[in-house]
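Tokens in:
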């Protein structure tokens, strides 16, 4: 059992003792002088200070054979925040930046960084009041948004066990993250079966996909409830002043919540963006925020990769990237973590993938993907590494029945819990993948609950920020996303895009 607290151990999960292991200090196919090695097995050194138990509930043992010396060698390289003149200086507040650069590139988007400051307490009270109103009025809240205005809430709502929610929580459905006629028709068709509220979320207030979905849903609500009652059932989460959604919400008199200027979409789950739907679903947002705050304190305590697990995770992934690993696969054995992985993919892909650099964040769900992507991971191109996202003690229990015979050959599993079987699968898979040349580590949460998920959110957000600055990119912009929008607007005939439309049509 790993200690409570977020840990990065460069040694065996089950056996943090100092015997030798032939794999220690080597990652397959890489330069042993610079690499960080992964893989189950004892590694020949004592547990680092980070292994000390702490009060938090998440643990991050790396199934690693890396030596501390190797890590120390990496530290200075991986933490070289200004890798050349093109790299932006990191804001010092991330806990590792130079004090010479108190406002590094992106420093004006660090509103998410201290979870206790994202939402003023009066706004938090308004979120709770609104969620209560939604619960009193409705059975279903449809949240409308895309990217960072969608994935965080969905990740939380799907990852948390139902028992964590209060009984009066409403169901949540999602719209505005695609333009599928089939899916939208299905959504509109089943709304009549429920009492409905809507939460439309867009920081810019101008994003096409959610704007179309909201236009449809607004019309539905006004038709069904009448304009006046519809207004009491619609909540807008957007910029304090700018954007079409702000204007519309003000004119219609909707209840509104503000996305702070200094919080970007994919870092906004602990702002009203995520908190309103999460609270309406019956989860305790104070506990979620407390988990994130705990992580903030914990990972702010040290700037050493040997003591700071978040920094260690970030440094390790950057070090592996520099050794030629182009892909990080976040793998889980828990289907409920599907959207957590989707959120993590967005967090990293949109933050890191710039200037011709950045790890490609991929996800796998096991056992499902062991029978598809497992083959590639075991024997395909050796340009990836894997991070397992593991829940150690599931809140659910399902025991394999004893049938009194062995017709199916499963008598040896009788009486054992599926969770235990799943954990053994993880250990077997991580060893097999390591033996196949796929470095891997594990992020282990003892039990996924509201608090540990809050901690995990801050852990990943912070690690993303740090990784980006290590690679010389500003984590908080996404200039590349504009290219598709301009083409789409041109092809759809948006005024102002006429010349581009002509040029594009000539190419089609
Ligand atoms: O992370 C981001 O900033 C983006 O993914 C945005 O959240 C996404 O593009 C949606 O933007 P908006 O909230 O302005 O509609």
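Residues out:
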């Amino acid at each position: 059992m790993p200690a409570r607290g977020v840990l990065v151990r460069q040694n065996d999960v089950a056996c943090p003792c100092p015997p030798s292991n032939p794999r220690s200090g080597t990652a397959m196919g890489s330069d042993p002088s610079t690499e960080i090695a992964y893989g189950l097995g004892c590694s020949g050194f004592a547990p680092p200070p980070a292994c000390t138990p702490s009060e938090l509930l998440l643990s991050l043992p790396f199934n690693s054979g890396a030596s501390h010396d190797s890590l120390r060698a990496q530290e200075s390289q991986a933490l070289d925040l200004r890798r050349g003149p093109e790299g932006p200086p990191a804001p010092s507040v991330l806990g590792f930046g130079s004090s010479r650069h108190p406002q590094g590139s992106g420093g004006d988007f660090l509103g998410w960084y201290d979870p206790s400051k994202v939402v003023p307490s009066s706004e938090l009270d308004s979120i709770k009041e609104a969620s209560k109103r939604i619960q009193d009025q409705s059975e279903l809240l449809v949240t409308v948004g895309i990217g960072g205005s969608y994935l965080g809430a969905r990740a939380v709502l799907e990852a948390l066990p139902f028992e964590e929610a209060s009984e009066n929580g409403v169901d949540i459905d999602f719209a505005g993250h695609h333009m599928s006629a089939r899916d939208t028709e299905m959504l509109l068709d089943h709304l009549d079966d429920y009492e409905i509220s809507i939460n439309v979320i867009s920081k810019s207030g101008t994003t096409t996909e959610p704007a179309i979905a909201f236009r449809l849903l607004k019309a539905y609500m006004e038709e069904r409830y009448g304009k006046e009652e519809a207004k009491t059932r619609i909540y807008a989460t957007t910029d304090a002043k700018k954007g079409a959604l702000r204007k519309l919400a003000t004119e219609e008199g909707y209840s509104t919540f503000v996305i702070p200027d200094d919080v970007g979409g994919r870092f906004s789950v602990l702002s009203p963006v995520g908190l309103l739907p999460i609270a309406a679903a019956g989860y305790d947002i104070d506990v979620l925020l407390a988990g994130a705050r705990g992580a903030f304190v914990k990972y702010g305590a040290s700037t050493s990769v040997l003591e700071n697990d978040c920094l260690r995770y970030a440094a390790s992934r950057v070090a592996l990237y520099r050794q030629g690993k182009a892909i990080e696969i976040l793998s889980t054995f828990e289907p409920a973590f599907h959207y957590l992985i989707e959120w993590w993919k967005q967090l990293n892909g949109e933050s890191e993938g710039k200037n011709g650099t950045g790890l490609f964040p991929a996800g796998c769900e096991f056992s499902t993907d062991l029978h598809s992507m497992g083959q590639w991971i075991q024997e395909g191109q050796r340009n990836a590494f894997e991070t397992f996202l593991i829940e150690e003690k599931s809140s659910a229990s399902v025991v394999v029945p004893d049938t009194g015979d062995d017709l199916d050959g499963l008598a040896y599993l009788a009486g054992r819990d599926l969770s235990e079987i799943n954990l053994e699968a993880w250990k077997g898979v991580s060893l097999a993948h390591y033996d196949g040349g796929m470095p891997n580590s594990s992020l282990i949460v003892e039990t996924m609950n509201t608090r540990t998920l809050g901690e995990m959110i801050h852990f990943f957000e912070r690690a993303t920020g740090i990784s980006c600055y290590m690679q010389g990119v500003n984590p908080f912009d996404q200039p590349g996303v504009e290219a598709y929008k301009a083409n789409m607007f041109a092809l759809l005939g948006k005024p102002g895009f006429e010349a581009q439309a002509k040029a594009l049509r000539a190419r089609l």
